Every structure is written in C-alpha cells, then in structure tokens.
Amino acid sequence: MSEEKQEGGHPKDLFHHGTISKLFPSNNMGVVRTESGREVQFAYDLVILVGEVQKTADLREGMEVGYDLGWTSKGLRITKIKAYAPPVPPPPGGNLEGQGSQSQDLPAEDLPDKNSQ
Question: Which of 62, 18, 73, 11 is nearest to 40 (CA)?
C-alpha cells in the first residue's frame, strides 16, 4: 500500500495536523496550534511520541506534527504527537533537472574531422 501525500506534504494518516506553537520545558507543557487556529495544550509526561521524535526534549517550536486528542481531568488535551521528518531542501544551485551533461555545444567548424586522423 503506497502512502499518498496530502497538500502539506505529510503522509496521509489519521492524525489531525498542526504546528507546535509554544514549549514550556520548565513546566513540562507545550501547545499545538491546530489547522483551524485553535491552541491545545499537552503535558510532556502524558503525551505519547511517535514518528521522527522519540523525546520531548527534541520537540521544537514551529515543528509540523500530527496529533490525537483526548479528555483528561484538565479538559481536552493532546494525547499523542507524531513528528514528521523535516522537508528535504532543494540542492544548492537551483533546479538541475533536464540539464543533462555539462559539455558545451561547439560550432561544427570547431569540431575535429573524424577522417583527418
């Protein structure tokens, strides 16, 4: 089964998608901004991490994540976070597609004659 890509470039999965907007390591808390703009909290010790990040210390503000929601004693919270691999940047020097070899096109009169050797 092939993984289809969604508009954001992440694999199609069953997670909601959002961005980590705030991290409070001293309080062991963080906030994810949902696609609709709502901010939902998570507790470091209560969230399950899957995907590219295995420790809460590796989470970064601005990171695109998938998440699951659940009800806790403090209300609606994020219970699972899936971190995706960062997008691969394009190679330096721009798009090299279709450039082929790096040889120069020489005018016909500058080419050595095969018969003169």
Answer: 18
Return the closest-CA partner of residue 61 out of 80, 39, 46: 39
* Domain containing residue 66: CATH number: 2.40.50.140
Q: Let me know how many helices (H) and strands (E) the chain has, helices first.
A: 0, 6
Provide the number of structural domains found in the chain: 1
Select from 89, 3, 75, 10 the least CA-distant residue to 19.
Answer: 10
- DSSP 3-state of 108: helix
Give the pair of three-digit tokens for residue 42. Answer: 């998570």
Render pLDDT for 73-89 as a digit per residue (tens, 0 to 9).
889 999 999 998 877 67
Contact 41, 31 (CB under 8 A): yes
